[in-house]
């Protein structure tokens, strides 16, 4: 199945990055959001990134103009009717996502693939909101999208081999490495990463070492580029808690119990970098 035109729904952190890499790889892209402000902010962010690439001589001014020429914004979901692939990157909320997928199922052409960038919600359940569950798949990009090389491709229970192959090929086209993952809570990345972060928070909670020292151990002792608590602040502590709850509920196993200190910080509004305070303080 040939993919020429892509719609990305949600122009936030992830959606804008996905739209950028698709346009840079030669696809026609429509970036869609309900909010004009989000579209403006998303597009400005992309322009800034491309301008930086030109400055660093990774791209010519002409290439930048061509990339921006392939990228359009829209607030009309009906524009999905001319797209071969729709990648959803709206808020991490099942009700919102299933509503978007049910709508898209009505609008998108019969051959179109509907993908979700969800970081934790079951693809099988999202697919069940459509009449084409065989053409629904997870395409889990990492943040920041233009930099990170991995895409987890999640097969829902009914995802067809043809759909999987089309998305795998496209991922390679985007200069990313695809990894095939079955649809279970946390997929692979968050199944392994989040319990590690949660354990680091338990180490703070139990007074084993300071956040700085825990991060130093993991950086210098295990060669991680960033300590788990710095990373948790970067991801957002609310997001970390949410994903731990998905693992805990999904497997019903106490080993995924979110650390009480994580809950406490989230309740206090200490959400990490975005709120100015998490395990560290930010300007
Ligand atoms: P964000 O909050 O930055 O962006 C979400 C955007 O979706 C907003 O601009 C909002 O206006 C828009 N939106 C909400 N409902 C909409 C609708 N019905 N139709 C059109 N637009 C709508 O969120 P972010 O961080 O970009 O996350 C998006 C998705 O990507 C979530 O599912 C998240 O779990 C996933 N994800 C996030 C990662 C991260 O590090 N932030 C990493 C990997 C996946």
Automatic annotation (TrEMBL):
Sequence ranges assigned to domain 3-hydroxyacyl-CoA dehydrogenase C-terminal in this UniProt record: 186-282
SUPFAM superfamilies: 6-phosphogluconate dehydrogenase C-terminal domain-like, NAD(P)-binding Rossmann-fold domains
InterPro entries in the cross-refs: 3-OHacyl-CoA_DH, 3-OHacyl-CoA_DH_NAD-bd, 3HC_DH_C, 6-PGluconate_DH-like_C_sf, 6PGD_dom2, NAD(P)-bd_dom_sf
Domain 3-hydroxyacyl-CoA dehydrogenase NAD binding: 5-183
EC numbers: 1.1.1.157
Transmembrane region(s): none
Coiled-coil regions listed: none
GO molecular function: 3-hydroxybutyryl-CoA dehydrogenase activity
Oxidoreductase listed as a keyword: yes
One Pfam family per UniProt: 3HCDH
Associated pathway: Lipid metabolism; butanoate metabolism
UniProt keyword list: Oxidoreductase
Superkingdom of origin organism: Bacteria
Family note: Belongs to the 3-hydroxyacyl-CoA dehydrogenase family.
NCBIfam families in alphabetical order: PRK05808.1 (NF004474), PRK07530.1 (NF005715), PRK07819.1 (NF005875)
PANTHER family cross-referenced by the UniProt entry: 3-HYDROXYACYL-COA DEHYDROGENASE FAMILY PROTEIN, 3-HYDROXYBUTYRYL-COA DEHYDROGENASE
Protein's name according to its UniProt entry: 3-hydroxybutyryl-CoA dehydrogenase
Taxonomic source organism: Virgibacillus sediminis
